[in-house]
Amino acid sequence: MFTLLDKELNESDDEMSHFPYHQYMSKEKILSYLQQGKRLGQPKSCSDWLYEIMLQCWAFNIQDRLKCQDIEDRIKEKICL
């Protein structure tokens, strides 16, 4: 979502750059990248607090990932709903 927003703002001219992991052309390369603890970088239009939530959602081990209710609670806490 944020990567597409960056593209809409003309911050990226590369046609493929708005796809996650566009530089890795196979499932095996993507899996290797993730197993090394690497994750997508923070999009320019994404706030720091939301990127932290994203990183927690992308934890390699499923049990370490945020649950839907946790995500909802953190977003509500941050935007004061």
UniProtKB/TrEMBL annotation:
InterPro entries: Kinase-like_dom_sf (IPR011009), RTK (IPR050122), Ser-Thr/Tyr_kinase_cat_dom (IPR001245). Residues 18-74 form the Serine-threonine/tyrosine-protein kinase catalytic domain. The keyword Transferase applies. Coiled coil: none annotated. It comes from the Eukaryota. One of its GO terms (molecular function) is transmembrane receptor protein tyrosine kinase activity. Keywords: Kinase, Receptor, Transferase. GO terms for cellular component: plasma membrane; receptor complex. The keyword Phosphoprotein does not apply. One of its GO terms (biological process) is cell migration. It holds the Pfam family PK_Tyr_Ser-Thr. This is Proto-oncogene tyrosine- kinase receptor Ret. It comes from Paramuricea clavata.
